[in-house]
Amino acid sequence: MSASNIESKRPKKSVAPSAKRPKRNEKGWQAEKSAMTRSAILEATIQCLLELGYANTTTALIANNAGLSRGAMMHHFPSRMSVMRSVIDYLHGRRLQEYRDLMADIDDPKQSLSQDAFTKSVESAWRYVNLPSFFAYQELLTASRTDFELLKVIEPVEKDFEKQFLDTAKAVFPHWKNVARLEGAHDMVQFLMKGMALSHMTVRKTERTKHVKAYLTTILTDIYQEAKLTE
Fold first, then answer.
1. Domain spanning 94-229 has what CATH number?
2. SS3 category, 17
């Protein structure tokens, strides 16, 4: 009998399933699936806040928007306020990151801070207050004026956000050494931008906003130049 025939008649070794294909890490997959579901719920909540407002954003509508059963949603968030608490934290981090991204590279440490840089910063600030995250958060802030339970949740987050937001502004404008003037300019920009963004019924809003942004750019440039003279 030839060697090839002998070889063909030998029983083949069975390969264990684990050797053929590694088993999926079930715990890891469940954790990933849970995180994806929570993220979908939070995004759906933001969408409901934008389209329906805080008062009309129910757990049933959030679940429907997220493509989940109400029971599946309640497994992750047992109450409406638990969803809102997580959305507030979610928006907290998201809004700070969006601001950093919009303001990145405006003040180049290798170049002097020019009027063009202020123009870019004003335009970026305007884009910032027109993001969905801004309006969703403002909806929550407005509702907290008369909803004491919501106020208790959002108030400490808002205080922390204001601090981190100012720290971020200082970090993205390294040329601006006069901290007092920088803080004043930062407050002026934020109050003005928020006011314009929330004035949704303003007549000729686009045209008037354009003029205000131009004035603001000039004012910021003057404040910065004056601050440099007093350093």
1. 1.10.357
2. helix
